[in-house]
Model the fold of this input.
Amino acid sequence: MKKSLGARTLAYCLPVYIVGSYGEEDKPNLMNAAWGGMCCSKPPLIAVSLQRVRQSYDNIINRQAFTINIPSVKYVKEADYVGVYSGRDENKFESLGLTPMKSESVDAPYVLEFPVSLHCELFQTVELGSHVQFIGEIKDVLIDDDCLDRAGSPDISLIDPFIYDNGSRAYHKIGDRISGAYLKQK
Amino acid sequence: MKKSLGARTLAYCLPVYIVGSYGEEDKPNLMNAAWGGMCCSKPPLIAVSLQRVRQSYDNIINRQAFTINIPSVKYVKEADYVGVYSGRDENKFESLGLTPMKSESVDAPYVLEFPVSLHCELFQTVELGSHVQFIGEIKDVLIDDDCLDRAGSPDISLIDPFIYDNGSRAYHKIGDRISGAYLKQK
Done:
């Protein structure tokens, strides 16, 4: 039997995007966004939605750039922290002992300790309602070299990312591989 | 050491959205989209990006509606199939033995066998490049009642969704819960 939950923002699976940006005097900031996803192949674009009250909102508008950092499971506390506290009150990198690295491709900081970072130039903003969607053009992706397999491809089990479940407000690990994709079935 | 992978669409974790729409003579269609994500809370909006060549692209433009269906792990073959074959050549519901149900809230079909479906009215289109982003306003979410916990909340372990890893072109299960979210840490 189907049950109606009404008009609500429930979907599976939601990412944990840690957004890096620079504020005034190059103060680096981080926030946690579950509202986002890839949105175009050519050019390579990724979207992330922010509320206007966020410090990161002003930062991205002013600098026209941001990073999306993918934390591994061992940084789940840090990832959650940056979604709870505001960069107006503290330097979250300092509070957490994380290292802000200046991107070589865009005007934004990335998190040295996280295994993957996407370096984005602001491509377009889309006003939607409570949130504004920032669409970023991916200028580079950095990955820890120990997260590559022998063929030099990113290995999800070494990256060890996690997802956010907004049905129960919890984070979950990624489990076993089920199968390959784009398989010919006939 | 960081390694640069250049400008590419790599991110973690990507969803498996199975998009339902009606074509001419109410022929139901399905496609598999990894480019998408939630994008606004009020109104509740979700984005999914499609290439213009897709049958689903025409369908959504014509009907101004679509569903996003979340498959459980046991439907991984069906989910992959709808991303490989075109609705121009076949009725994918019939090919797979899936049941198209007419949504009561929008002009699109949903997949009876999948545990969760989001029923969306087209809210906005955003032309980006190779892909067009369809932003849908979520009018209702249906869930199998046996995927609810005792308190009536969606239980991700009962829904059993999976993610797509485009680093290795494979599907992965969701693993154990790590922790709650929005925790006060100070």
Q: What stands out?
A: Chain A touches chain B through 91 residues (CB under 8 Å). Chain A has a mean pLDDT of 97. Residues 55-63 of chain A form the longest helix (9 residues). The helical segments of chain A are 55-63, 76-84, 92-96, 156-159.
